[in-house]
């Protein structure tokens, strides 16, 4: 298949799984970390229904790794995040806000602790590598920082465990949430974590070496024949229902982790060494004046949210919608918004300025059961 609308070039990186994705009939891509990320296979709504009922394999190679290797790897990792990493053992993954010296969000990756001296930061869509290299260099740390040839492949959905057991053996069932183990595939070591960008359950396989990408893709496809396995991708509807944030859409470096509702992943007092610590101690004391909230938007299906839609109260702008989609299961439009504290309480009725005109928008905490 050739790419409609997107002009291929080496800057727009393909992934080790792109041939499989295209054979499976990918209908649309986005660009994430300068790499292709599928967004639709059959339709967003069909993909959503199938994700909740069966099992999908996702090419999320665009979740690139920033690897830290050397005696100062742990020290550098703690400089990057206000989450206290002292209790983290090799074999664990942590969702970690990454902040700059002002406490602004630079990324919201998954940190993977391979050993005391080796970490992967599985990044969202921003060029975090440069910030990490500059921090290591500026502090003269004894650590190598680079992007290795590691491409995550996610297996998501209620039948994910059954599929994984067929390919990697029954012991893959023992991997706990946000933990990982090492498993063999055709003589190659694979880090497999129970994690992923959906709330339907599943795993992420960190595939080392692009050459083994298609053999693994094909083996999973073969093993899933009678499980209604299909290629899928992070699903807009499911991730809004689940409250999974998208860096660059729902938050930027203008936002603190507290504004993003990620305060539960900050231990700013004890995160000694974090470069944003002083700034965050200040904002954490006062508390944020705006925060991310789940929002229900009234009426028929909203169009795609490709820019922030103002949220108004009495004509005054009090926030913005950053993601929105029609939810078949909730029978309403679900959305993610950033709302000023005067209007962020449960049930607060606002007006969303959508491209189709103004719509009633209500703060709807119960979408996300935190
Ligand atoms: N997996 C991996 N890398 C990633 C993502 C991923 N990099 C990019 C992007 N996704 C980073 N963003 C997120 C957002 C949410 C979660 C993971 C990565 C997530 N959150 C759960 C939650 O908020 O409920 C669990 C957090 C927890 O309990 O620790 O999973 O998906 N490899």
Question: How would you describe this protein?
Answer:
With 370 residues, the chain is an alpha+beta fold. It has three domains: 18-63 and 149-239, Probable tRNA modification gtpase trme, domain 1 (Gyrase A, domain 2), CATH 3.30.1360.120; 65-146, Alpha-Beta Plaits, CATH 3.30.70; 289-370, Elongation Factor Tu (Ef-tu), domain 3, CATH 2.40.30.110. The protein has eight helices and 21 strands. The chain has helices at residues 18-23, 44-53, 73-80, 128-138, 160-168, 213-223, 236-242, 277-286; strands at residues 28-32, 35-40, 55-59, 65-69, 93-95, 98-99, 105-107, 110-115, 118-122, 144-146, 150-156, 180-185, 188-193, 202-208, 229-232, 290-297, 309-313, 316-327, 332-340, 349-354, 357-363. The strands form five sheets. It has a six-stranded mixed β-sheet, sandwiched between helices. Strands 16-19-18-17-20-21 form a six-stranded antiparallel β-barrel. A five-stranded antiparallel β-sheet has the order 5-8-9-4-10, covered by helices on one side. The longest helix has 11 residues, at 128-138. The radius of gyration is 21 Å and the shape is globular. It starts with 17 loop residues before the first helix and ends in a 7-residue tail after the last strand. The model has no long low-confidence stretch (mean pLDDT 97). The chain binds (6S)-5,6,7,8-tetrahydrofolate. Residues 63, 95, 108-110, 122-124, 152, 178, 195-197, 204, 244-245 line the site of (6S)-5,6,7,8-tetrahydrofolate (THG).
């Amino acid at each position: 298949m050739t790419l409609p609308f997107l002009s291929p070039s080496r800057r727009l990186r393909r992934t080790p799984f792109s041939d499989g994705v295209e054979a499976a009939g990918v209908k649309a891509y986005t660009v994430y970390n300068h790499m292709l990320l599928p967004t639709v296979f059959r339709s967003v709504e069909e993909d959503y229904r199938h994700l909740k009922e069966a099992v999908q394999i996702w090419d999320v190679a665009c979740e690139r790794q920033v690897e830290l290797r050397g005696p100062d790897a742990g020290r550098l990792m703690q400089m990057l995040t206000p989450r206290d990493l002292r209790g983290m053992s090799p074999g664990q993954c942590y969702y970690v806000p990454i902040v700059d010296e002002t406490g602004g969000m630079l990324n919201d990756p998954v940190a993977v602790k391979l050993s005391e001296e080796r970490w992967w930061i599985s990044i969202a869509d921003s060029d975090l590598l440069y910030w990490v290299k500059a921090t290591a260099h500026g502090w003269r740390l004894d650590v190598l920082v680079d992007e290795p040839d590691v491409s995550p492949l996610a297996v998501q959905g209620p039948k994910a465990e059954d599929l994984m057991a067929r390919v990697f053996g029954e012991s893959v069932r023992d991997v706990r949430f946000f933990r990982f183990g090492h498993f063999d595939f055709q003589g190659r070591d694979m880090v497999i974590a129970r994690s992923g960008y959906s709330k339907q359950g599943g795993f992420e396989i960190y595939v080392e070496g692009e050459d083994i990408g298609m053999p693994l893709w094909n083996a999973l496809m073969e093993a899933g024949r009678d499980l209604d396995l299909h290629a899928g991708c992070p699903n807009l509807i499911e991730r809004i229902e689940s409250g999974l944030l998208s860096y660059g859409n729902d938050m930027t470096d203008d936002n603190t982790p507290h504004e993003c509702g990620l305060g539960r992943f900050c231990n700013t007092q004890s995160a000694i060494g974090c470069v944003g610590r002083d700034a965050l101690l200040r904002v954490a004391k006062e508390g944020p004046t705006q925060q991310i909230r789940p929002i229900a938007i009234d009426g028929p299906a909203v169009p795609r949210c490709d820019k922030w839609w103002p949220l108004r109260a009495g004509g005054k702008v009090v926030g913005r919608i950053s993601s929105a989609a029609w939810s078949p299961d909730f029978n309403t439009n679900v959305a993610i918004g950033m709302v000023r504290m005067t209007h962020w309480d449960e049930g607060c009725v606002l007006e969303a300025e959508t491209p189709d005109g103004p719509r009633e928008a209500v703060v709807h905490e119960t979408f996300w059961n935190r």
